[in-house]
Amino acid sequence: MTALRALLAYSELLRKFQNHLTVSSLGLEETFEAGFGHLMERLRLDTVGLFWWDPQRHAFSMQYVLHEGALMEGEEEIIVDDQSPLRQLVDEHRPVVVSDKKPWAAFIPLKMGSELTGAVRLQRTLPLSKGKVLRELSSWISQATPHQREYPLLEDIADIASMRLQQLMRDEKHRKRTRFLQAGSEVATAVFERPRLRDMLEAVSRSIVQNLGFDRVRIFLLDSDGHRLEGILGLQIPDMLLDLTGESYPLKPGINSLVDAVLAAGPQAHVHLVGGRVVYVPLVVNAQVIGCFAADNLLSQQLMDEEQMESLRSLAGQIGMAILNARLFEDIEQQAITDGLTKLYVHRYFQQRLKEEIDRADRYAYNVALIMLDVDHFKALNDTYGHLLGDKVLEMLAHSLRTNIRRIDLAARYGGDEIILLLPEITEQEAWLMGERLLNIVKKATVTTPDGNPIPISVTMGASLYSADAHNSRDLIDAADKALYWAKKNNRGGICFYRTITPPDAEKSA
Amino acid sequence: MPNAGFATRGILAGYISDFEKERPDVHVKLTVHPWSLAWNRVMEVVKNQNPRSTPDVVQVGTTWVTTLSYLSALEQVPDTLFGTREQRVATSIGDSSPFCIPWFIDIRVLYYRRDIFEGFKLDPASLNDWVGFKKVCAELKKNLAKSDRFSRIIAPLGIPGQKPGVLMHDLAPWVWETGGDFCSDGLLETNLNQAPFIEGCEFYFDLIDQGYMPVSNSALPQGNFFTGHYAMQFSGSWPVDTYLNPASPICIPEVASGTAVVPLPAGPQGRYTFLGGSNLGVSSVSQNKEAAWDFIKFLLDPDRLVGHARAIGALPARLSGMEGLFDRIPTAKEAFFNSFGYARRLPRLIELGSVEQIVYKMGTKILALIREKTYSHKRLHQEINSANNEIKSLLSIHRYGKRITGEAA
């Protein structure tokens, strides 16, 4: 009867232990607390500790300890040398009872297949003979005969816990894999949904930081000559976007690890891991290096793992292609809004931007100035020297204007030799000064004829101001056009504001 | 919450129970992490790597505050509940940032055994500076080797901490006392490879290498100054109410009755000690911010704040909580109160948490050299240089780029 009772208690204990371990669909911490918490209660244990095995250091490091109904992270470390009572556990993967006396202590192995992954230490202050349930179970716990397993109950506990551990590890691997796949899918989505380079790189960086678990990602691309690595943008935890424009490194060995990684890049994407916490991934497309992205964990100091590296490697090709696509899109977009000869914006784009600037001027109560200009005696130049020289004059003029206006201004080819400048957030005085300055710059420039003679170039300008001279875009252009007409008649080579012209002359152009 | 493990849990469990009686709508679950793992746990929250972990109230080491505020991991302290920042600074000791409130503080001093000093006719006044301190170490080592009187003693000096390792705050006073520091005044450059820093490190690691402060290993019995295994030890205030309490089962009677305390020895460029501790703040991922601040307010009640600090052996982070401390050990009172004047914080670097990890790694490598008996000043300099480069890379990377989004701390 006693043997039967003991057997029943034995199977009941294991069944409930298994139930408690598996009832929790949560992580390791909760599973350990639920399963071994139950075991503590049934076996009257005082403390249960979970240790991970480090084969390099031959040491068990504690992760959790259960004591007085509370779970805590532990710091204990047990080094297993040849004299250690845990030697048998490490070599044979079988439970050991390190102390049969008071306090009683046993270690059970945790395995993943044939590999030792850790151990659980069970400790009890009271001798095993105390307590009703334990008296029945104690023979199973401490049984040691030549023909039987030494500690059948501990062996079974070890098997059940190991199985559950394997399942948890598989789940964790699956979760990680899902996050990596998510990153891949987000990069692919960004390619389709965000055709512009910076937008696309922002989405890609965000996905890498959030799904692959890095502290920070920084993206650098080679300039058009392939001589320098230029910073584009970066993203840092929790969600800080960083502007890296202005960071630029010549492609010379020894400048920094980033440049060295680019110089060392082969035709295939390769990951350079530095100190376990910084990684450089050259972006290679069609065997050409186009840039590099750097990911690091220098803020959190978390070590990067092989799976993260593999994910970066596989994403690198995708990101490289996405960059090429975005650049192509931006090139096409640029071509659609710029004039092929002068590289100035086209009339249609100018009209769109003028409307936007007028809306902004209304909202924020500032002026918008227009300066319309054309080349003096342009027809005579074409007739005398040919249209090729006329094109040269327009190219030179456009370049002088483009490089001497503010970043917020816009220069567009209005038609023929007429060019229009859109100057937002400006006073009449500032617009006048800018016009004068541009006139002088153009006057100093010359174009050379095919036979080597320099020809001086001059332009005349007409200007209007929103909202002093007009209340809509159409009237504003019209006012600048009238001012230009008046200036060509009365002040050739100079600038004239609509407000200053006499009405009869103004009416003539209408 | 890190620190003191079961002691933290014990005292806080009582507070939580009282708080839940006052606020039956709120249930508080306490999670305690050991100090060595706490930084990783906090970073997992910042990086959303553990979706199940969404703490409300967090205990934040003073050295982490700048980093965590920069990463927007902490909520701003509501003035309505806790007064303005100026008011908070005026009533507390510690790092009263806009993002958290001082909870307890920690100052390092030197504990020594009077009976051993008397037995070997050593003058405690020698502990006043580096030269005298090193002489005392040498005398103790020599005398202990040929005396049976203090057979339990392993070495002159016990290494601080529970695990063999060198933390940034263990090293800090020694490099400060040579005029060095971990980084430049503007917090832009690392100073590890500067002569004063190296000099401070040499002094500290030589103590270990020369056997004055041995690194524990499996051959050494587990123990510390308070278990009677060493003649001296650097430590904070925690042993006064814990180990040096006559009721403590760990402390041997000679230590309980015969311990004296002095400030850290002064170096060539003055005397310093490390001022650390922990603050309380509300995590930005908290879904219960209002209740979290209420709980902090509850914990900051003067009796609870002092009660907690004393239970875990720390100093309470408020001026009024110092009364009644160290009454049993008069030298401790004097040493701690004097040390306030020399106390200094670690630099307020955004990357300090990471710099701490790099310095810890450096210390671990140097300890390994000592264990393997391959330690030399040349190897020490190599390890310092390597750490210096890693920190340099960290600081330079961090300064890259202009922040576009996110609020600056």
Keywords for this entry:
heterodimer; A: about 500 residues; alpha+beta; Beta-Lactamase; Alpha-Beta Plaits; seven-stranded antiparallel β-sheet; 14 helices; about 45% helix; elongated; B: about 400 residues; D-Maltodextrin-Binding Protein, domain 2; 3 domains; five-stranded mixed β-sheet; four-stranded mixed β-sheet; 16 helices; 10 strands; globular; disordered C terminus
Report the uncertain regions of chain A.
none
| Number of E strands of chain A | 21
CATH class designation of the largest domain in chain B:
Alpha Beta
The H/E string of chain B reads HHEHHHEEHHEHHEHHEEHHEHEHHE
Number of strands of chain B: 10
What is the overall pLDDT average of chain B?
A: 85
Overview of the molecule:
The complex is a heterodimer of chains A (510) and B (409). Helices cover 46% and strands 25% of the residues of chain A. Chain A is α+β, with helices and mostly antiparallel strands and 510 residues long. In chain A, strands 1, 2, 3, 4, 5, 6 and 7 form a seven-stranded antiparallel beta sheet that branches. In chain A, strands 8, 9, 10, 11, 12, 13 and 14 form a seven-stranded antiparallel beta sheet that branches. In chain A, helix 13 (473-490) links the parallel strand 20 and strand 21. In chain A, helix 5 (152-193) packs parallel to helix 8 and helix 13 packs across helix 14 (503-509). Chain A is elongated. Chain A starts with a helix and ends with a helix. The model of chain A has no long low-confidence stretch (mean pLDDT 85). Helix content of chain B is 44%, strand content 11%. Chain B has helices at 5-22, 35-46, 65-70, 79-82, 85-91, 114-119, 130-146, 168-176, 195-209, 238-241, 253-258, 289-299, 302-312, 330-340, 352-371, 377-399, and strands at 57-61, 101-107, 109-113, 155-158, 230-235, 259-262, 273-282, 315-316, 343-344, 402-403. In chain B, the strands form two sheets. In chain B, strands 1, 2, 7, 8 and 9 form a five-stranded mixed beta sheet that branches. Chain B has a four-stranded mixed beta sheet with strand order 4-5-3-6. In chain B, helix 1 packs antiparallel against helix 13 (302-312), helix 8 packs across helix 9 (195-209) and helix 15 (352-371) runs antiparallel to helix 16 (377-399). Chain B is globular. Residues 405-409 of chain B have low confidence and may be disordered. Chain A binds chain B through residues 26-27, 67-68, 70, 72-75, 77, 79, 81, 210, 213, 215-216, 218, 231, 233-234, 237-244, 246-247, 257, 275, 278, 296, 298-302, and chain B through 5-6, 9, 32-34, 36-37, 39-41, 43, 46-50, 52, 67, 71-73, 162-163, 218, 351, 353-354, 357-358, 390, 393-394, 397-398, 400-406.
